[in-house]
Amino acid sequence: MQSRREFIRSATLTTTGTMAGIGLFSSCNLLPEKKSTLTMDYVGTASGYSFYQNHLSHHKKLKSIPRTFQQAVKSSSPIVLIDENLTLKASYIVMLLEQDKDILATYPIGLNLGEYASISEFMEQTGRFVGLINPLAFYPSVEMLKEIIDGDNISLNKVHINCNPKNLGGDMKIDGFTGTAQPLQRIVSYITGTSPISLQANANENGEPVSILIDFDSFETIIHFNSKHPGWDMEVSGTDRTTGIEFSANTDYTGMLAIQNEVNPRISSDPDVLEKSIMANIEDFLDAVRNRNEPRVNHLDGLASIMLNRAVEKSLSKDAQVSL
Asked: Which of 90, 218, 294, 316 qualifies as a FRET site for 286, CA 20 to 30 Å off?
């Protein structure tokens, strides 16, 4: 099994630990007070742990400990970061929830809607959180674009995305069926405050997706896959409802944001923007755990990913538009 995140500058990632013989243990892991140290178990690889530790080590009130899955189930840490593909079956997540642990995962939880429903039921029973990492969710360009669209009363008519199907940019590789389409679709929903209602996937002669047309009711998003693309780029077009003037914006994996084809981008490219966004995602989750507020990227993003994968597979098999 391979980690979803494969940093080229690091050694090839391999998973650690086994799931055999895990028992359930009764416990009551109370969260520490805000001023005390918060402990987070890390289940993943040595190189993955090194990546997170390098960025999170400046947090004086956070202690991260690498563990196997079995050790994480038994430990007293209130948070577990899962950064390896354990297939995240419902039984594994439930084991952690039953130990009163909040979970942060780099993969959507559950393999299907049935497993997702089981996990949601245990979340309600235990009052714990399950958060996800969307590497693009905390890009400053994404935040600013959302503010502009909301503040300037922009009515969108199209979002056009070009992307590498398995690379979000730089060193970040993505495994899995629709690859980069998942986090990209989720930030379109975040920027616009809307959810997709249907999609049409198109494939090449090998059955691999080459494009996905997603209908958001009032506008459409087209995602084109290009294996030679260094990451992704997005063009948003619409109309200012107040003035009637056409609106356009361009952003990409470097964090650049240009409005109305301006010569000087509103936000310049940042070579570290991807890693900064991932860290901001984690910090948002930690704040949510401390304050017992729902994290911004939560289990509902996992549900959206499951539904997107399911719809793409169905669309390709039937060569037809399918509802979400």
From this structure: 90
